[in-house]
Amino acid sequence: MTVQCIAPKNSPASRCRVVPNFHSEATRPQPPSVRTYTIVSEQKRSTPNLLNASEREALRQRILQAEKDLRTMKDDYNASAPVNRLPVEVLSDIFVETALIDAWFYNSPSEREYFSWIHLAHVCRDWREVVFNCTRLWSRIAFFDKAVTEFMLTQSKDAPLTIEYDPPRSQDDSEDESADSNAPDLNYITLKLPSQAHRIASIKSFGDPAYLSKLKGPANILEKVELESNHGEDLPKEFLQKGAPLLKHLKIHRIAFKWSVLPLNSQLTTLDLHNNLSPLPKKRPSSNTFLETISSLPLLQTLSLVDYLPQDWTLAMALTKRAPTICPELRFLTLEDSSEYAINNFLQAVNAPKAIKSDIAFNESLGEKFVHILHGFFRAFDKFSNSGKKLGVRKLSVEEWRKDVATFYFTFVERIDCPSSKLILRLRKPTMSTCAYLRGFRELSLVDLSPLQYLRICPTFPNSYPACDWILLFGELKELATIYVQSTSIQDFCMALNNEVEEGETRAQGLAFPCLSAITLDQVQFWGHPEAPDDVEYLITTLASRPEGHRIRKLDISECHDFRKSDYQAIKTRLPDLDVTFDGHIHINIYL
């Protein structure tokens, strides 16, 4: 860097200025990174307060020039960064992804932080130019300031618009009215949207949807609509009544509507309707209307209905009066309803040969009717997804994260014509235990567990699965190779492995769990104080007693209570052929 000092004649102190030293056009290097600057230093004036007006103005001009030169140098430095060698199209894609991350993180389009990606334009002139010319960035419209909204509508040019808006529930939601004085009100939004209907590709709203009453359409490029609320407001009947021919994704949660006003068309691939605030039977469609709607959606791939299934059909009507409605492309199904028979009737009346995953929840306790209802459910489910064929279960996971709900995850064996399908079944259990449900599955032959290879048990309470139930339900399965247990009594589990039961209880015929080779113990309580049997010793003895050819080959231990490194070393020493892993987590229960 060149330093140039300038001292006026007869001056007691030198003065300085910062002057860029530009090359001539003939010799100036082309890359901005090699442009040179001359910084002129000066000695500090001993008595600056004696400057007259002209000298102060001259000093101010030199400061402005220095700041300008510094900005120029910063711009040139930033412009020479390697990232700026990327094509404009790639930079635009990076900026769009950054904007999507901001949108996901802040999750409220009414806040300025939701659009913090705008700071990208402040890095350098090149980035600013890319940002301002990227219409996709400006097409996600902001509604925290009218001027910003208008600017984005203009800057996005003809790009398809994404509308994300959280309408206020009242006019005095904001404590600081002055902070929102420039924010678009509902009248502004209501009047602005119709004029942009031809550009809107996506609408996402949380709150009262009344402002959508003027958006009648036609919305010729609209593909996605997501409306949610917590108060059950009515969907305006005028919404999209002139059509949205390309609509593919429709999601309406906790908003009341009549089935006839839904903007449905043959292009729809996702239909997601939830009414889990409170049941509204009067808003449910009739069975005939519902089945006609489903049959008119040949491309439907995802169907999710919560408390919106018809209630006027009977099992006899579904079985005898009409052939099943075919959903040829349906892959993912979610049904949740307070009416237990509504779910079974749907499965009887609809057939989805390509169904991959079904998530079914009975919101009411089945009580003493559970045998009859579940028998009807599994028969209907086999018809819905397997053309009446009962498929064996390859993997089963049973979870009780909530005390009143048991969740069963079934993974069925693969079919020649379709990949492995999955069923998630959620059952209320205020009076029924999870083991009682499993015993019902077995005794009624509701599911075929004979091909089961993987079992995962996660109960609420450690003693939920006594040894007799382990043996009765799973002890004689010929292909069960892996068991994952969490928060389960290790003593009951070891008793089951040893085929030990109380007097009068049923034992396994022959060796219990004959093909078991891998066990995972997660968050299991090990007891080892003098007043109780040593669970670690019991586990070692149990595993060592397995006959040759039926030994456990792999044992994983993670986050178990009162399991120490010395216990891990004892297992490794006494069972040298066992592949045992320990995560090192030591949690000592001080309350024992």
TrEMBL record:
Residues 84-142 form the F-box domain. Pfam families: F-box-like. SUPFAM superfamilies: RNI-like. Gene3D superfamilies: 1.20.1280.50, Ribonuclease Inhibitor. Coiled coil: none annotated. This is F-box domain-containing protein. Residues 162-183 are annotated as: Disordered.
